[in-house]
Amino acid sequence: MGKIALFLSLTFLFMSCQVSPTPQLTATPEEVNTPALVPATPQQSLDESEARIAAISALNRSFTYIEPLTMIKIEKMRYGEYVHLIQQSLNQPADLEVWAVIFFDEQFQSSSRHNEGPFPPFRGCVGVAIKAGSGAPVEVGGPLTSNSAFPECDN
Predict the structure, then answer these.
(1) Cα–Cα distance measured from residue 103 to residue 40, given in angstroms and rounded to the nearest whole number
(2) Which regions of the chain does DSSP assign to beta strands (E)?
(3) Cβ-proximal residues to 53 (8 Å cutoff; 6+ apart), any chain
(4) Which is it for the CA torsion 52, 58, 61, 66, positive or negative?
(5) How far apart are the C-alpha atoms of 115 and 13, rounded to whole Å?
(6) Residues 28 and 109 sit within 8 Å (Cβ to Cβ)
(7) Closest CA to 75 of 144, 15, 132
(8) How many beta carbons lie within 10 A of that of residue 64, not counting itself?
(9) In 10 A of CB 26, how many CB atoms?
(10) pLDDT per residue as tens, the chain (155 positions)
(11) How far is CA 110 from CA 77, 100, 122, in A?
(12) The pLDDT of residue 33
């Protein structure tokens, strides 16, 4: 009797484990509705916080400084206005839109590899101009000359 029960159990087990037929795919790529993607549009201009980050990044490539670093001005303007503000000469198109950022620190040190020799540390201001649209550096320079617009920059 035990052998017959085992035989019947195995038979029922095998019968319940039938292979189901392979499902057939019925959809084709033309039949699938894909939502349309909205094309990405480039950002028109950096906002002030993004400009601040980009300016500090550009500053760090050209100068080292002691903490705390003080930002005394950040403003979007034309490059021509920027060079007038910092009393420098024009070396980019005057109508280029930039974020102008002026930093003050007790001790800046030039870290430019283009300089012939070491420059002494200085107390004063450094100007940074970055493209308003991309944040790419346009100009980083200092020390800024004495300027009544920025009394903090006077040595």
Answers:
(1) 34
(2) 63-65, 70-78, 97-110, 122-131, 137-141
(3) 135
(4) negative
(5) 85
(6) no
(7) 132
(8) 13
(9) 6
(10) 555 555 555 555 455 555 555 555 444 444 444 444 444 345 578 999 999 999 999 999 999 999 899 999 999 999 999 999 888 888 899 999 999 999 999 999 988 655 555 678 899 999 999 999 999 999 999 888 776 677 877 75
(11) 26, 19, 9
(12) 45
First to last CA, the chain: 109
Contacts of 57 (CB under 8 A, 6+ apart): none
Residue ranges of the domains in the chain? Answer: 48-153
Tokens 């002030």 map to which residue? Answer: 48
Q: Is the dihedral of CA 113, 119, 120, 122 positive or negative?
A: negative
The CA distance from 42 to 55, in Å, is 20
